[in-house]
Amino acid sequence: MLENPRSPRVRAVAKLTKRSARQETGLFLLEGPQAAREALAYRPDTVIELFATPTAMERHPDVRDAAREAGLEVEYTTEAVLDAMADTVTPQGIVAVARQSPSSLKDVFAASPRLVAICEEVRDPGNLGTIIRAADAAGADAVVLTGRTVDPYNPKVVRATTGSLFHVPVAVGADLASVVERAHAAGLRVIAADVGGDDFLTRRNLLAEPTAWLFGNEARGLETDALAHADLALRLPIYGRAESLNLATAASVCLYETAFAQRASD
Predict the structure, then answer these.
(1) Torsion from C-alpha of 33, 143, 169, 253, nearest 10 degrees
(2) What pTM, to 2 d.p., does this model score?
(3) Is the model's pLDDT at 22 over the cut of 90?
(4) How far is residue 134 from each of residues 106, 116, 126, 160, 210, measured CA to CA in Å?
(5) What is the distance between the alpha carbons of residues 207 and 191, in angstroms, rounded to a whole number?
(6) Which of 118, 157, 178, 223 is the most buried (most CB within 10 A)?
């Protein structure tokens, strides 16, 4: 059992909360039973270490069984060690280390996608994680991160996806112009979600066709040059007194409306 919170092994895991360590090692941190459960169910090949307190394994025997099925032995630790490893105050007794496995842009668009979310300079980890989760729930084929969008392996992003990071392909590090070019070549219309766009309801009929939604920065939205890459821009109407919609909420509506339209046309 690991008992020393200051041991080199514990500190190496804890460093994965920092982007520099994730870039250097190609690894990232998973916290809590849900993240571990989803990783072991959908991408067991990426999980290389699983740490847990004995109490947590008693509460979540399915995680222990899934780890063993993947050929992975649980490394037992004290509560103090788990706390030292984790990014959260309450990691729920389980922490795992996994290899980053982003999808390539080529593979994303070679798969003839019908619904893709493109995130351009989305900076808030909670927003990005929620967009990935919404894309997964809406049956999107991929999420593509461009510009200075936050690292999808940031612990806060990983937590906000609640496991969807392991369900939907996520491509990173792409230039927006290249993404749009590939989207067009794959037959997708690129629609920007923007407050200066046309009323959503007036162009709703377009959503049944293959669509790539372009979402921008939480505070500034999409810059002029980014908007220029889109085929058109649409805005969601505000019927009440709200000043605006949160980015992740707006993205969820756009993705689901598109999923509804596409399924209705099948």
Answers:
(1) 60
(2) 0.95
(3) yes
(4) 23, 11, 12, 10, 18
(5) 9
(6) 118
Percent of the chain's residues with pLDDT above 90: 94
Whole-angstrom distance, CA of residue 171 vs CA of residue 169:
7
CA distances from 9 to 19, 29, 70, 80, 222 (A): 18, 14, 22, 14, 42
For the chain, give the number of residues: 266
Q: Are 203 and 254 in contact (CB under 8 A)?
A: no
Phi/psi class of residue 26: alpha, beta or left (left: φ > 0; alpha: ψ in -120 to 50)?
left
Q: Is 262 helix (H, G, I), strand (E, B) or coil?
A: helix
What are the extents of the domains in the chain?
A: 8-99, 105-265
What letters, b where the CB count within 10 A reaches 16 and e where it falls short, cover 152-188?
Answer: bbbbbbbbbbbbbbbbbbbbbebebeebbebbeebeb
CB 116 within 8 A of CB 212: yes
For the domain spanning 105-265, the CATH number is 3.40.1280.10
Please write the tens of the pLDDT for every residue from 39-75: 999 999 999 999 999 999 999 999 999 999 999 999 9
Output the furthest CA–CA distance in the chain (Å, rounded).
62
Strand 47-52, strand 94-99: pairing:
antiparallel
Q: How many CB atoms lie within 10 A of CB 25?
A: 14
Instruction: Give dist(CA 117, CA 122) in Å, integer.
Output: 12
Q: How far apart are CA 124 and CA 218, in angstroms?
A: 8
How far is Cα 59 from Cα 57, in angstroms, rounded to an integer?
5
Residue 181: both structure tokens together: 């070019």
What the block records as the tokens of 41 is 């169910």
Instruction: Report, at the CATH architecture level, how domain 8-99 is classified.
Output: 2-Layer Sandwich (3.30)
